Amino acid sequence: MSLDIVILAAGQGTRMRSSLPKVLHPVAGNSMLGHVIHSARQLQPQGIHVVIGHGAELVQARLAGDDLNFVMQDKQLGTGHALAQALPALSADTVLVLYGDVPLIEVPTLQRLLAKASEQQLGLLTVTLEDPTGYGRIVRDAHGQVTAIVEHKDANEAQKSIREGNTGILALPGARLADWMGRLSNNNAQGEYYLTDVIAMAVADGLLVATEQPDDPMEVQGANDRRQLAELERHYQLREARRLMAQGVTLRDPARFDVRGEVTVGRDVLIDINVILEGKVVIEDDVQIGPNCVIKDCTLRKGAVIKANSHLEGAVMGEGSDAGPFARLRPGTVLDAKAHVGNFVELKNAHLGEGAKAGHLSYLGDAEIGARTNIGAGTITCNYDGANKFKTVMGEDVFIGSNSALVAPVEIKAGATTAAGSTITQCVEAGELAVARSRQRNVSGWKRPEKIKKP
Ligand code: UD1
Ligand code: CA
């Protein structure tokens, strides 16, 4: 059975009070529409068609992908009109309609829905709500068969008392669509072409309507304002937290933990409060992450330890290495096994060999640092001349004295030492001591200036 997916995303979203089109508002770091497209792709359809209107240019620019067909709906004349715009591009047996502002829909739910759709049957996703105000109501006959959807604004009192609502998500037989779209009218309370009218048409044509429900009503919750957006965000985060806990992660507080990307985890991982994981993060067994850390696009190998208030981006931490508190690892940082980075140390495009240490107050940029080398407090690589970047290379077992300035390009070979306070501008050969500071001079009998007391 072939599948086309149409995502309706042309609406304005006035209640967001935003210059950003509604479907571009983020949940967990990805736009709502991005989430829907991600789910759509997992169903491996022959086509994904996104109906856009408000902010179309921006939506298209942000989400462009080879597998996406954007369809313009210049005027938002209703959900039926929106689907009709995509009609010329549709050719599959089944057409699945999704909403660009309903981001938490789960793939298994859609698979269950699609299993109910055939040439002779529609699949309709419904949700039973305590308060279905605003939703189209599912009207059933005496045998419980669905006969129609009535929009809230068109419903009589009896129909308004129905608690089963239309989620808007449905699977339709493609062969019938052109006929049904051609017969839609806007003769209703809102003067719109309602997609929901196809239900009564299908029943009149002798088709059956089979319903399916999501496991969790939040899957079909849309976001019309920022309050609902925040609810979706918290729900998404709790879902992610539970998924990770099920895989062997201890979260000190699942309510104070955020994932904005794709995280894979090993077992016996410990994550303290207020940790944000962004982008692609790989966390192996026995990793420990302290409170208030932001970790983006990183790989943390077995047993790595990140202490409180550290910020990591594009870094790889080797087995048993540690960083922080207050460490900053910038893109291109690689710590080999058991390397140690302490407080107020910034690394960028820097490689610390096995067991190498930079314990305090340093900037190490564009640096290659050998195994077991010790970087004294306050050491700075001077890697930038205002126009170009240069590299600092250190061999194994080097000892850099505190407050050294290493003016790149420069090399300090294995076993060499630099004296504290040195400004190193030349290569230091293996085993040598480099002293590059002015000699101390003591002036005896020196008199400090004295303040003159005002009368
Ligand atoms: C729709 C359903 C209603 C359902 C509800 C669930 C119809 C007629 N009604 O109502 O039964 O209970 O969703 O939230 O379908 N859109 C377009 N172009 C348009 C109009 C809408 O792309 O011309 C898109 C919107 O961007 C949105 C989706 O379609 O993503 C739904 O539109 P919305 O206006 O929210 O529909 P409702 O009136 O709430
Ligand atoms: Ca709506």
Automatic annotation (TrEMBL):
Q: Which gene encodes it?
A: glmU
Domain of life of the source: Bacteria
The organism encoding this protein is Pseudomonas parafulva
UniProt key word Lipid metabolism: no
Q: Which residues bind acetyl-CoA?
A: A377, N383, Y384, S402, A420, R437
Biological pathway: Nucleotide-sugar biosynthesis; UDP-N-acetyl-alpha-D-glucosamine biosynthesis; N-acetyl-alpha-D-glucosamine 1-phosphate from alpha-D-glucosamine 6-phosphate (route II): step 2/2; Bacterial outer membrane biogenesis; LPS lipid A biosynthesis; Nucleotide-sugar biosynthesis; UDP-N-acetyl-alpha-D-glucosamine biosynthesis; UDP-N-acetyl-alpha-D-glucosamine from N-acetyl-alpha-D-glucosamine 1-phosphate: step 1/1
Binding positions for Mg(2+)? D101, N224
What protein family does this chain belong to?
In the C-terminal section; belongs to the transferase hexapeptide repeat family.
Its GO CC terms are:
cytoplasm; membrane
Q: Known EC number(s)? A: 2.7.7.23, 2.3.1.157
Q: Name all Mannose-1-phosphate guanyltransferase C-terminal domain ranges.
A: 260-340
Q: Where is this region: N-acetyltransferase?
A: 248-455
Q: Which InterPro entries match?
A: Bifunctional_GlmU, GlmU-like, GlmU_C_LbH, GMPPB_C, Hexapep, MobA-like_NTP_Trfase, Nucleotide-diphossugar_trans, Trimer_LpxA-like_sf
Q: Which GO terms describe its biological process?
A: cell morphogenesis; cell wall organization; lipid A biosynthetic process; peptidoglycan biosynthetic process; regulation of cell shape; UDP-N-acetylglucosamine biosynthetic process
According to UniProt, the name of this protein is Bifunctional protein GlmU
What is catalysed by this protein?
A: alpha-D-glucosamine 1-phosphate + acetyl-CoA = N-acetyl-alpha-D-glucosamine 1-phosphate + CoA + H(+); N-acetyl-alpha-D-glucosamine 1-phosphate + UTP + H(+) = UDP-N-acetyl-alpha-D-glucosamine + diphosphate
What UniProt keywords are attached to this protein's entry? Answer: Acyltransferase, Cell shape, Cell wall biogenesis/degradation, Cytoplasm, Magnesium, Metal-binding, Multifunctional enzyme, Nucleotidyltransferase, Peptidoglycan synthesis, Repeat, Transferase
Chain residue ranges for the region called Pyrophosphorylase: 1-226
Q: Name one Pfam family in it.
A: GMPPB_C
Annotated compartments: Cytoplasm
